Amino acid sequence: MVVKAENYNRPGDKQLGVLFDGGKVRKRREWRGLKDTLYDYGRWLHIMSILAKFIAKPRNIKAMFRYRWMANYLATPHMIDKFTMGLRDEPLRIVHTSMDFVVYDVASTLDNIFRGDRRTGNDVEYSKKCVLSDENAMTAFMMGFPTVHAILREVPCMFVANLLTQYSSTHYLDVAQQAGIPGDVCPMPEAEAGTSIDDDFAVLGCCAVQVNTTCDGSLMGNGIIAKRLEREYGIPTFQLLAPMRHREEDVQKYAAEDMKKAIAFVEEHSGEKWDWTAYFESAKRVNDATRKRMAWLEINSTPYPQFVGAPFSLYNDTNYMGNCGRSKLFPPVDAKLLALAQQGYEAKRMMAPEYRHRCIVWGVQPQYCIDMLNWMVHCWGVVPLTDMLSMINTKMIAEEDTPENREQAYYDMAWLNENMIMRNRTHGGYKVLVSELWEFCDMMHADMVMLWEHMSCKALDGMHGQFEEQARERGIHLVWVCHDLCDPRVYTRQAIRNQFNDYMRTVMREEPLDPSIEILPDDNAW
Amino acid sequence: MSILCNLIKKLLIAGGSFFAVTFVVYFFNLDMKLTSKIEPFLIKHYDTMPRNTYL
Amino acid sequence: MKDLKHLLYFENLLQNADNELVQQAKSEGKICVAYVCENTPEPLMNLGNAFSVRLRAPRTDSMEISTYYMTSFLCEYTRALLERAIEGGFNFADGIIAPDGCTMINRCVENMELLHTMGEGNKKFFFSNMEIPLKDDDNGVELAILQCKNHILAPLHDSYGIDISDASIRKAVKEHNRVCELIRAIGEYRKGDKPRITGYEFHVLTLATYVAPKYLVIDKLEETLKELKTRKPENKEYRARVVLVGSEMDDSDFIKLIEDTGAYVCADRFCYGSLPGRDPIELNDDEDALTQVCRHYVHSCQCPRMMNMEKVYGRKQYVNDLAKEYGADGIIYEQVKFCDPWAYERTLGSTMLRDDFGYPVLSVDRPYSINSSVGQMRTRVQAFVESIEIKKLRGGAK
After folding, report:
1. Residue C38: inside a domain
2. Is B55 on the interface with C (CB under 8 A)?
């Protein structure tokens, strides 16, 4: 059912293609009408202030010259521009509220990393209270360690870096492949392994906790990283497991017992004791975040979705996985986002003149092209209601400090660990990956699924035929969009978008809402 | 009173100038145009750094 | 060397998944339990009236249909299995047990289930997915016990009334051990300068023990062992002795290819191989058999999915120990194309075996059926063998 905006009149630039000239960066920023342009300008100043505070510290400048991946952060404001393209009113404010906070969070992470890093800040006492954690790992095991810092050192190197510039990972992929790792494996753990082989990770921490999430590739890449940590840098590692068949009852005890061991490991090496009060406070925040996320999804199930697209996905990643209830800073941001979403919904705010299709985005996104979700809205009137990485835990965990809940807490933390973003769908059986997708389509009234086919994701690829056949049975438009996660040499951005363009033109027989962005000259762009 | 007026006048001029300059930088994307010119020098630097490449 | 009496028999047996011994056992009313991963405790699938068959897809050429379902990026072993299942080639099975050992095998079996490729006309047929430990510790052993109870023993008992008692498990272990002892004894003839059995012949025999009912191969293995006691070895020097390490390998032609270049495969540390797949399981009377069997599989497991660092380093140490025991000059690390776990294990393993243990190492990936890539592989192996020869001539350390 097509939803048309009443009296839609987007102030400012009507054709978004005017912003592009084929260069590395955009010709200019978007004119959004006076009110929203001034708002966006104000948020740009805010981002600049975060960056200025960061570079004011000499250790961070030193890091810029030491670590190749730091160069990507020159493009931080450019990233925000990608996610805010074409937006006004509440949707613009939602993106800024969420993404500006993510920028702040990442800047803090970087600052902490370089504070403890042996090669830059070298704050030894601080480093002794740091625990390294994987990029794709829930930090639930740190919920009861308020004085120990969880350092997700891989996140800024790979995950965030590829949001900023498309070629951020290619050097590390080349290093990994030169060392002998084949090119068909998932580029994420491959790039992490490559970063380790190239000695381009910061070195800090009293210990490291690795997890086998997301997949076989992550599990295996950890061995390469751990070998260097242990043998060269003397940082002991613990491998925390998340069972594969995480929906089954008979694996939960296994997971909970290993969680206990992980916590004991951190206690042993950090010298800090587990704090149950802190844990249950974090648990409350986890539940609060879960409720907010479900509320956003409920709004997205209406004809006027508000908090959608890449910012929705990335903010959920940051809050759910990276934070996992540990920081007090997230709840007020969640509350503000919910308020804005409700406000936008009540005002029937739309991001495009019409929404022709309601789309669930499934699979794993190409990091360097995740802003495509915003592009879909403006170019084709296809609104992305949610994505696979945002369909995570909906269960409330125990938040009251009682003897029974202290035992239950290990199971809860293990459950969160198992239900890490992406992984909770790609592993655990076809029901969580395929069957539940159709349930979400019903729940959110979606008539279309855009399936990011990350070609190296064996978990997803393995169900290719089933997706096709079952979508056909249900009359759901399934748009395959292939990519290789973070390697633009395999699929360029336009090649990715063209798969969607081709479907819309040939199957749906539709014309774009904004033809000026159907073909974007961004092959050379950051 | 006149000191206060002078101060306010100076603040307004400073604020206005700050706004004008930064808004021009913002709107014409001069910040990103500048940093995009810096990037190749950094890449060259990284390429020439000695590395302990080790599996 | 004089041909082994039963070699041709076993070679022919391996031409079909539904081989004559499987058919014989089925005609005797036995229950065929199919499985797909070496991490599944074999004796538990050979209780009472049941016998286990590890699935393979010999003489696979086209994998077009399975590639549609699983795409060309998944490992060829899993696609070959699915293709064969869709063709009806596994309809002899009465149930299938699939550990979530790796993502790809999981997807393979899930597709088999969703496409109803097996169990037609058999209401008792079951698909059983199970978790297997990721670490070698007591917690892992406890998990293995629980999973085996819930996902192997329970379906066997509930569907087919199989006796799953402790006594039954001990009996199955005894039969399993007999096969292991025979294979290991045969394998001993690979040692020394003049081995009495080729790597190829050994692989054929070992494979047969995975894909046919054990009770029907024991007599032929006993005869083969007896034969080997008096078999005169070839009067030739092998150019190099190599340990073959890697992912699943049910294609003996690959071993033949290596040996055609003048090398000798003296030890088989791969999935479907004898090390550690044919290590006997020692049972005592102090503890229940199920626990001991599970502990054995967890501790002896050399699958790269075992992720604690003791295991990560331990696997390389194990290869080193094998190389010493079997007098190897070099190591060949192989993986089936698109196998994620072995992609990394091969990289790290070949680096460590070279740098830390000082072996020449060849690291290759291969298609499921080597016949589609003979020329390329032969060139790689030949070059490797020559490099070992040159090293030996120069009197270099291994």
Report:
1. yes
2. yes
